[in-house]
Design a protein that fits this description.
The chain is of the alpha/beta class. The chain is 49% helix and 15% strand. The two termini are 42 Å apart.
């Protein structure tokens, strides 16, 4: 970005004004200059060599004007002060966020949206650590808490591609076999208890609570849990028990509920909401995967407010590109002037 974009037009206007004034001054000087006439020299203008030199002169003169104008633009950008503007917050850099995703069939579509949204948010992170844990009947840590954003981007991209699968296509066998293989490879390790157990939310959340390290440091720790809370099987932890464990470890739990309307869904949603809100977390319910982006943004904004994270704006001058252009164009200008004089 440019700190003073108006300066470009000022520089261009000054250069154009100087060229116009220089042209009129040169014309006036030529009118006052004495002319020496040479007899029998009229045929010179018809000579091929003379015409060739005149053509070269005009081409060089045109190039000179273009180069000078380009140098003026480059100088204008330098005067406008090109900078990189970055917003940072030391408080937000102490955040640890664990994405805790239920990867049972009914949640895959919502998980995809959450992962993609964090991919979009990644460039705005500076020091925050992120982890991804997925669960069904058992849990798998995709990657632990880290601020290695190259690794995070790689892993989230792979996760988004694997989760971008139409689960309904399994019913009529219209699925893409390659996409299914990619999904199954990603979900490996989350179905250790077989087909009789699914969406053991309490166990999955308890595992996510154990993903935090650096217990001696003062850090903001939060879990974003996405599930429909539709439990099949006997978990070691119920959802309320796991939520209590999270609170005991001084971790904030934020919940995203995306359950379908069934005979038990109202009770499942209430249990989930109570477990999250009882410990001061944010709870959202939605049947629209497109709403996930807004929900993630609201959670991030709430964390910033709670941390009282006043942003610092860091401005770094970046004149390198335009300075290189200016030097190159000035070199061409001097070369063209030397060629014209010769």
């Amino acid at each position: 970005m440019l700190m003073h974009p108006w300066a470009i037009w000022v520089v261009v206007a000054v250069v154009v004004a100087a060229l116009v004034l220089g042209w009129f001054a040169r014309a006036a000087k030529q009118e006052r200059r004495r002319v020496a006439w040479v007899a029998n020299a009229g045929y010179l203008t018809a000579l091929p060599s003379f015409r060739s030199r005149i053509s070269q002169y005009r081409v060089l003169l045109s190039c000179l004007v273009v180069v000078l104008f380009g140098a003026s633009i480059a100088a204008g950008f330098l005067v406008s002060r090109p900078v990189d503007r970055e917003v940072r917050s030391d408080e937000l850099a102490t955040r640890d966020i664990v994405l805790c995703l239920d990867v049972s069939g009914s949640m895959v579509e919502y998980d995809t949206e959450i992962v993609q949204r964090f991919l979009e948010l990644l460039p705005s992170f500076h020091g925050e650590r992120i982890a991804l844990s997925i669960f069904n009947s058992t849990s798998r840590t995709v990657f632990p808490l880290t601020d290695d954003y190259a690794l995070v981007e790689e892993q989230l991209t792979e996760a988004a591609e694997a989760l971008d699968f139409d689960v309904d296509s399994l019913d009529d066998f219209s699925y893409d076999a390659e996409a299914l293989d990619r999904l199954l490879a990603f979900l490996a390790g989350t179905e250790g208890l077989g087909q009789d157990a699914s969406s053991l939310v309490g166990d999955g959340l308890a595992t996510c609570a154990l993903a935090f390290d650096l217990e001696d440091e003062e850090r903001s720790r939060s879990i974003i849990l996405a599930t429909d809370n539709e439990v099949f099987g006997e978990p070691l932890y119920t959802l309320p028990e796991a939520a209590d464990l999270v609170a005991e470890r001084d971790i904030t739990l934020h919940g995203f509920y995306a359950g379908a309307v069934t005979a038990d869904s109202a009770a499942q949603e209430k249990e989930y909401r109570d477990a999250v809100e009882a410990h001061g977390g944010l709870f959202y319910a939605s049947d629209d995967p497109d709403a996930v982006s807004g929900i993630v943004d609201q959670i991030s904004a709430q964390q910033a407010a709670e941390l009282d994270a006043d942003a610092d704006v860091i401005i770094t001058d970046t004149p390198e590109t335009y300075f290189a252009w200016l030097m190159g164009l000035l070199a061409l200008y001097l070369l063209a002037v030397w060629r014209l004089r010769s």
